[in-house]
Each structure stands twice: as structure tokens, then as C-alpha cells.
Amino acid sequence: MSGPGGRAALALLLLLLGLPGLPHARPRYEPTWGSLDARPLPAWFDEAKFGVFIHWGVFSVPSFGSEWFWWYWQKEKREPYVKFMDANYPPGFSYEDFGPLFTAEFFDPNQWADILKASGARYVVLTSKHHEGFTLWGSKYSWNWNAVDVGPKRDLVAELATSVKNRTDLHFGLYHSLFEWFNPLFLEDATNAFNTSKFPTSKSLPELYEIVTKYQPEIIWSDGDGNAPDTYWNSTGFLAWLYNDSPVRDTVVTNDRWGAGSICAHGGFYTCSDRYNPGRLLARKWENCMTIDRGSWGYRRDARLRDYLPIEDLVKQLVETVSCGGNLLMNIGPTHDGRIAVVFEERLRQVGSWLQVNGEAIYGTKPWRAQNDTVTPGVWYTFTPKEGKVNAIFLNWPVSGILELGEPRAKPGETQVKLAGYRELLKWVALGEKGMVIALPQLTPQQMPCQWGWTLQLTDVD
Q1: How confident is the model over 284-308, as pLDDT tens digits?
Q2: Are strands 416-419 and 454-459 parallel, antiparallel or unpaired?
Q3: How confident is the model at residue 8 (pLDDT cuts 50, 70, 90)?
Q4: DSSP state of 101
Q5: Distance between CA atoms of 205 and 186, rounded to whole angstroms?
Q6: Integer Rg of the chain from CA
Q7: How many CA atoms lie within 13 A of 253 on its CB side?
Q8: Of 271, 263, 369, which Cα lies nearest the Cα of 328?
Q9: pLDDT tens-digit map of 55-80
Q10: Do strands 402-405 and 171-177 pair parallel, antiparallel, or not at all (unpaired)?
Q11: Which of these, 279, 330, 69, lies nearest to 181 by C-alpha position?
């Protein structure tokens, strides 16, 4: 066939036969939860498994107690916060006065990107705006309460986005709080039982469209519904635009915090609650967002060493979460002057060194038929589909040098067992139809492939 008529006939024939050759029509999503919830989650998110959360804002200036400092001090008037202000700041000092003190003079986005890369994380989520309403970019909807007008006089979102894109393979994401504690428009809408919508139409929604269009984040991590329903926030309208017409429509993922009642029920992946770790498989993709500092998401100067989770606990959380089909989003809180404190940097680099050895048991894996072992505590399983490998990650090295696994069904003469980071195959004995005993190599501490959890790679097991 030749000519326009011939090409049209060929195109029609290909379409009727369902053959490749024509671009498929992009599905359109309606602004309803039924339609939006049916959108397949872009594959990269499940494959990534591990991300870093960054809580940074004006709350990093007082850096006392919690990133909820303003609320606890002014609204709830909690005694430690009131005493802290009375002892350290003059009478009449307001939270807004912290804005110019958010200086970020040591903020080096390239250094941050290098630390993120070293952590082994595959994505990062930055708080573009927390409940205090201060935006880390020069939003035209947050006049004189943003990082370009006040404090650093820099577009912190743009700088980090650029460095992450240029220096790493991480997916860049943004956290955004729907509500703001003390915004007069939000308080007015709340007084009206959310039957008016001045705040979302003039502030929150325009900001969301702004950050998506300007920075093209591949994660929109929504939070802070202020007890208002998703209809007040017009969340389904925004998500329909995000999935249908935004510049990131093919790759963007979202969470489940889009209004009262939506958490753990609607959206992209489920977070359900902070530090959510169900310990079992869920029907939908989920994420465990947790903090290295047990007591706060933002940086706090009053933290003690015991408040920071040790690397053993972080590896345990990562392994348990991934075994049950989740992603781990591990939070750090930088300082007001733009530094990632050395304790956070150390923890991130430790996770990265562990992933260098054990990453095959984490990235791109799927849950196995059993999540943890039924005989030996502290053993968690993942499955690597491409190679058909079962990964048994054990968190405690047995003193005897013998590890018993109750779940795998080994095949004599076929099953092979390898310790990640160690060259030689390991010897094993089957325990009837199910279970096996594995002889671990006798290694000095210097010969250990890693320090805080080890992976056995099992091939040809059921």
C-alpha cells in the first residue's frame, strides 16, 4: 500500500488486529476514587523499596521538641515549649520571627545528593511545605513566607531537585501539607464546617499545581488534611489532572493522605499511619515512613544519642518492611543552617554499605510465599523473580554456625545456597519435605561480608 489512503488502511488493519505499530490511547481517569484507585502504580516505586524523607523548614530553627513546635507552643501551650521560649527569646517574639533565622548558609545541595546516593536510596521526598505554611520554594501563593523572600533567599526545592537529577539516579519527590495550622482562610473555612473553600482554592491547590508544573516531582506525598474531607480539598480533581494531563502523568506516584477518611482507603500507595509496619502482606502497595530520631521528624538540638535508632534497628525495619511488600521511607531532619547532622549521615551511609552487599535481596524483589521463618526468629524472606532466587535474610549470626530454616523445600542435587558477599557455595542438609539446615562459613569479623544482617541466596527451592 502506498499514499495516504494506503497508510490509513494499514493503520486501521493494525488497530483491528491489535498489533503493535500504533500508540495506544492513554487511559483517562475520572475525578472519582473508583477511577483514580484503579490506576496502576508505576512500576519503579515498588522496585525502588527504599527512600529518604527530609523534614526541613522554619521548625528547624528552634529545633526543640518536635517539628510541631509552633502548634505545641502557641495552641496547646505545652509547658516545655513555653518554658523554652520564655528562657531563650524576648517577650513578644513570634514564630514568624524564626523565619529570617532559617538561613541555610551551609546548604550544599550537591553534598546532600552525594549522601543520598551513598545511602542506597532510590528516591527522596523533601517537605516543600509543612503545616507551618512556609514554602521552601518562592511560591507566589505564599507571599513573604517562603525561602526566597525570607531567610535563605534561595529556592531550596529547585537546588536540591537539580542536584539529585544531575548527580544521582534517585526519583525526586515532594511532601506537601494540605492545611496550615494558623492560616486565617483555613480557620475561617473550618469555622464554616468546611462548607466554604477559600483556603484550598486560593492557597493549597494552586501550590500543588505550581510544584508539579515547576519541579515535576515523581512523588506527591500529601499530608495534613486538617480533619476536612477530600471534597473540601478537591483532591480527586487534582489527582485526575495529575494522572491525565500533568508533565509527570506517566511516572508520578501518590500516597493516601488526601482528606479525612482517605488514609489507608484511597490514593496510590498506602501509608495508613506514621511508622506503619503491619508485619504481614497487604492487598495494596504500602510504605513505612519512619524516623531515625525516635522522637521527632524535624531536627532537634535536645535529642540524646539513645534517641537515634542504631543501624541494626534500621536494617531490621528495612528487611521486615520489604519482606511484607512495603517500601521504607527513612526520615532525617537537617539543621536550620542546611547541614545533615553527622549522626544522620553516618546512619544513611551505613544503610548504603549494607545494601551494597545485600541489595539483590531488596531492590526489585517480590514477597515470597512466606514472609518470615517459622522455626528461626529474625529470618525474613524476599523473592527475586528475574533469577528465581529466594532470599533468606537473617539478622542474627548463630553462635553454632548452623542456621535452620523451616520454610524452604530444598531439592537434593539441585538446590544451591550462597551467602551474599561470599564466593563459595554453602553446604546444607534437607529436613524431610520442608526445612533445611545450612552450615555457615567460619569467618573472622574482618572476613564478614557485612555486619548487621546477612543474605542467603537459595536457588531451586520451593
Answers
A1: 999 999 999 999 999 999 999 999 9
A2: antiparallel
A3: low
A4: G
A5: 13
A6: 25
A7: 24
A8: 271
A9: 999 999 999 999 999 999 999 999 99
A10: unpaired
A11: 69
* Strand blocks (E) in 326-440: 326-332, 379-384, 389-394, 402-405, 416-419, 427-430, 436-439
* Rounded CA separation 105/115 (Å): 18
Whole-number Cα distances in Å, 357 to 117, 292, 316, 326, 361: 15, 22, 15, 20, 9
First to last CA, the chain: 53
Would you give the DSSP letter of residue 200?
I
Q: Can you read off the three cell numbers belonging to residue 93?
A: 517574639
3-state secondary structure of 112: helix
Residue 326, phi then psi, degrees to nearest 5: -100, 170
Pure H helices in 245-341: 311-323
Would you say the C-alpha torsion 407, 413, 414, 417 has a positive or negative sign? Answer: positive
At 5, is the pLDDT very low, low, confident or very high (cuts 50, 70, 90)? Answer: low
User: Quick one: cell of 39?
Assistant: 490506576
How wide is the angle at C-alpha 264 spanned by C-alphas 30 and 359, nearest 5°? 100
User: Are 351 and 309 in contact, with CB atoms under 8 Å apart?
Assistant: no
Whole-structure pTM value: 0.94
CA distance 363 to 121: 10
The answer to whether the beta carbons of residues 111 and 164 sit under 8 Å apart is no
**CA atoms lying within 13 Å on the CB side of residue 317:** 23
The rounded distance, in Å, linking the Cα atoms of 307 and 436 is 39
Q: How many Å apart are CA 455 and CA 462, to the nearest integer?
A: 17
- Selection from 244, 183, 176, 184 nearest residue 210 by Cα: 176
Lookup: cell for 353: 554499605
Residue 43: C-alpha distances to residues 161, 212, 461 (Å): 21, 20, 26
Find, among 224, 171, 166, 220, the residue nearest to 51 by Cα.
171
